Amino acid sequence: MQDQRQQRCIRDFGEQWTAFPDNRGYYGSKELLEDICRPLIEAEELRGCRVAEIGAGTGRIVNMLLDAGASHVVAVEPSQAVRALERNVRERSEQVTVLQTTGEQIPPNAELDWALSIGVLHHIPEPEPVVQAMYRALRPGGRILIWLYGREGNRLLLFFLLPLRTITQRLPHRVLNLLVSLIDLPLRLYMTLCRHFPLPLRGYLCNVLGHFNPAERRLVIYDQLNPAYAKYYSREEAVDLLRKCGFQDIQVHHRHGYSWTVMATKPDCARAAA
Known about the structure:
alpha/beta, 7-stranded mixed sheet, 7 strands
């Protein structure tokens, strides 16, 4: 059952990113990467580093990492979206290694400085093998950074979203795309109200979604309704996911009150032995 859900998620996201390959604007910017990573790290800390990005999709985060100064990015993407990824990084192909495989197949002992997975692990029914593979691929002292949907701060969203998703995840692309356009209308009204009142999800809607153009905003709605599997992590679950795989010095940030950015370090065995 887990394998079936994972394969369906891979297929769904392959269709999604094939239909929406454009990463221009704030949606694909270094500024958004900084918003995701801060205050745990500054984007400048990636300069000159060898980085893996797990669940690379169309290459949006890959290009963000290169814009931040990463020297090389290993882009891991199992779905058919890998074709869009290759097109979107074509001009920087010498700095990118594209692997069309699942996250648990990332090569071990790759001596990576960083391993990132942004918006992906919460769509994997059993994420621990992927996190363990990220651990093995890092050099001693290397760091992991993940971004996950949060359970805390999303009560209102989940009240409406979870029942709706039981229907929308079964809809064909064209029908779901039409539904997204209809949902966008009340969302725009709610975003306007958030600018004046302290409503739920105000931080995210004003500081992130409010920077997106209409097409990018509709893509975010589609991304919420499309997946066959999505888990909303509590803070404790997010920390345990990394701790159980051997990471130390775990730091957590509740981003805009609705999601978790989590950073941790692979122990430096040589230093520990000294």
